[in-house]
Amino acid sequence: MRQGGRMILRAALSAALARTALTGLRHRAPDRWRRVNHAGKSVDLHTGPASTLAAAVGAGLVRPGLGAAVLAAGACGAYDDIVGAGDPRRGFRAHLSALRHGEVTSGAVKLFGVGAAGLVAGALLKEKPVDRLLAGVVVAGTAHFVNLVDVRPGRAAGAVLALGAPGVLRRGPARELSAATMGAAAAVLPDDLAERSMLGDTGA
């Protein structure tokens, strides 16, 4: 199958998995997966794990290690979503300051966990050592950027779509990986925009 066909299949599969997972989570997930958004509305966090699972499956079909890296990053985000729910500290500076005083916050776990997962993903995408390092920095930095813009409905998922678009124009595994990620983001975007759900730290 041509690369274009595989790319479309990756995106479609990720979108279908994200919608299926989202439906399942809404029937089974406990109340701790709910938050009050910026407008004071009660929303669920189900789009986060749903999109992460879908992206991980899509990435794993490209290269198994990539799927594991996505799951690891998502697990760090889920830990922050649950354990750090009542922690008012936000941003890199606050978590690094706590770390300097000997406290490992859930945000620090996510910060370093996502960074490590990004470096692993970069190593799997490239061949030369320098290229692997640069790719890892880009992947980790992109993940943290998406998290930073997740302050209003649709911004994080929209950022994933915008940042992933150049990737589908490239050749190699990055193309299919971008398609899988974009498919998952597009599938949950309507719920995010309608303020029924938010990605939270698991998905962003």
Give structural notes:
The protein is mainly alpha-helical. It has one domain. It is 72% helix and 3% strand. It contains 9 helices and 2 strands, in the order αββαααααααα. Strands 1-2 form a two-stranded antiparallel ribbon. The radius of gyration is 16 Å and the shape is globular. The relative contact order is 0.19. The mean pLDDT is 83.
SSE topology:
Blueprint: H1 3-28, E1 34-36, E2 42-44, H2 47-62, H3 64-83, H4 92-100, H5 106-125, H6 129-148, H7 155-164, H8 173-193, H9 200-203
Antiparallel strand pairs: 1-2
Helix pairs in contact: 1-2, 1-8, 2-3, 2-8, 3-5, 4-5, 5-6, 6-7, 7-8
Query: Structural class, from secondary structure content?
Result: mainly alpha
Mean pLDDT, all residues: 83
Q: What is the domain total for the residues?
A: 1
Radius of gyration: 16 Å
Adjacency order of strands in the biggest sheet? 1-2
- Strands, count: 2
Low-confidence stretches at least 5 residues in length (pLDDT < 50)?
none
Determine the fraction of residues in helical runs and give it as a percent range.
over 70%
N-end to C-end Cα span:
32 Å
